[in-house]
């Protein structure tokens, strides 16, 4: 809906120029635009997905045009989508995931800082979930999954782009006391939801993404062992969703987590090795070495 993109973009431009305030301006614009666009069309399925993508694109375009802070715009957009989706009775978590996916992809396309966008989007997911009464852990997982799929849409997923997005997601959740395990599960789910099979590139991406989560968690002082287990759980869940070998997915995630731990410290290697060795979510996990 090109008309919706332009409408949101122009409203954002006018509001930011008039007040200079971004988060609240974007929140109100997005919430209202989404509710208006979906009235009479139904709030589930394709109509909601397309409207969310258009609204998110309009937000990034409008904010970019006036030189606004894209991270703050991303935060406002996620909060606005959660509020607007609840108002029309739509599937809130699907909308959150689609929003963050579109925001990360759109930010990358305009040359913005995808890590900052991911961080603020995660903060928006946590704050927005609290404001409408849904579980924060669910919103965190949905946002993380969407962000990783958005990163995959702008290039090969095991790149610096994905690593930056993961760092942003972990930092955003950490800033607001969010569950880092949910970030880990969501990121691994996102990798697999964006894949059609578990070929070499997807397994490599799973491994690299798990490694990025471990390093980012270590950097914010989080519980790396718990996050490593959650990453493997997410890989297993994602593998089940797309119908591929769960043991292979689990192995790729565990091996990536362990390799990343080796880049940090010997102590962390021991913690992660204990955490990811054995049976997780009913799947025997085999770590592929050498991992250092």
What tags apply to this protein structure?
292 residues; mainly alpha; elongated; 2% strand; two-stranded antiparallel ribbon
Short description:
The chain has 13 helices and two strands; from the N terminus they run αααααααααααααββ. It has helices spanning 2-19, 23-38, 46-65, 70-87, 92-109, 114-132, 136-152, 160-175, 180-193, 200-219, 224-242, 246-264, 266-276, and strands at 278-280, 283-285.
Protein architecture, described:
This protein has two domains: 1-178; 187-292, no CATH class. It is 77% helix and 2% strand. The chain is built from 13 helices and two strands, in the order αααααααααααααββ. The chain has helices spanning 2-19, 23-38, 46-65, 70-87, 92-109, 114-132, 136-152, 160-175, 180-193, 200-219, 224-242, 246-264, 266-276, and strands spanning 278-280, 283-285. A two-stranded antiparallel sheet has the order 1-2. α1 runs parallel beside α3 and α10 packs across α12. It is elongated and about 55 Å long.
User: Could you give the order of strands across the largest sheet?
Assistant: 1-2
From the helix content, strand content and strand pairing, which structural class follows?
mainly alpha
Spell the H/E element sequence: HHHHHHHHHHHHHEE
Mean pLDDT: 90
Low-confidence stretches: none
The largest sheet, given as strand count, sense and whether it forms a barrel, is: 2 strands, antiparallel
Number of strands: 2
| Relative helix content | over 70%
What spatial form do the alpha-carbon principal axes imply? Answer: elongated
Terminal Cα span:
49 Å
Number of helices: 13
Percent of residues in β-strands:
under 5%
How many domains is the backbone divided into?
2
Radius of gyration: 19 Å
């Amino acid at each position: 809906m090109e008309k919706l993109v332009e409408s949101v973009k122009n409203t954002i431009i006018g509001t930011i120029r008039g007040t200079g305030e971004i988060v609240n301006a974007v929140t109100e614009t997005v919430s209202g635009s989404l509710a208006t666009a979906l009235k009479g069309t139904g709030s589930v399925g394709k109509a909601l997905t397309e409207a969310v993508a258009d609204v998110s694109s309009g937000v990034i375009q409008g904010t970019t045009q006036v030189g606004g802070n894209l991270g703050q715009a991303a935060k406002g957009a996620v909060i606005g989508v959660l509020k607007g989706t609840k108002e029309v009775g739509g599937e809130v978590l699907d909308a959150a995931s689609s929003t963050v996916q579109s925001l990360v992809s759109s930010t990358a396309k305009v040359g913005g800082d995808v890590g900052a966008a991911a961080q603020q989007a995660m903060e928006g997911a946590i704050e927005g979930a609290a404001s409408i009464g849904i579980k924060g852990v669910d919103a965190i997982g949905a946002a993380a999954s969407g962000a990783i799929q958005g990163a995959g849409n702008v290039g090969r997923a095991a790149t610096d782009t994905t690593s930056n997005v993961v760092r942003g997601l972990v930092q955003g959740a950490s800033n607001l006391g969010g569950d880092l395990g949910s970030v880990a599960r969501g990121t691994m789910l996102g990798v697999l939801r964006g894949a059609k099979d578990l070929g070499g590139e997807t397994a490599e991406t799973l491994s690299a993404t798990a490694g990025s989560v471990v390093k980012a968690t270590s950097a914010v002082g989080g519980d790396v062992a718990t996050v490593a287990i959650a990453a493997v759980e997410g890989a297993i869940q994602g593998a089940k969703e797309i119908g591929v070998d769960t043991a292979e997915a689990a192995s790729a995630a565990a091996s990536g987590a362990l390799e990343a731990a080796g880049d940090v410290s010997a102590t962390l290697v021991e913690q992660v090795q204990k955490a990811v060795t054995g049976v997780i979510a009913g799947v025997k996990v085999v770590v592929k070495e050498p991992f250092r």
